[in-house]
Design goal:
By secondary structure, the chain is mainly α. It has helices spanning 11-54, 63-73.
Length: 74
């Protein structure tokens, strides 16, 4: 009688391993996409600010005015 060699991979550990890699890879993809979106939005806002400065339409925000109004309200 011949014995068969077990060459099959156990299914449950393989599924755990694959699931771990899928979660890691999709998490990395989502993180990279969010970083790209944040950098793109920051670049867009900076370009708009520079264009307004070139056209002399940019008004620098003065936060001290808001501080004065808060002190007056108290």
């Amino acid at each position: 009688m011949r014995r068969k060699r077990k060459t099959r991979v156990r299914f449950i550990p393989l599924m755990r391993w694959m699931l771990g890699w899928y979660i890691l890879s999709f998490g990395l993809i989502i993180a990279m996409m969010s970083i790209v979106l944040l950098v793109g939005e920051a670049s867009h806002q900076h370009i708009n600010k520079v264009n307004l400065m070139r056209e002399d339409k940019y008004i620098e925000p003065d936060f001290q005015d808001t501080w004065k109004t808060k002190e007056e309200k108290k």
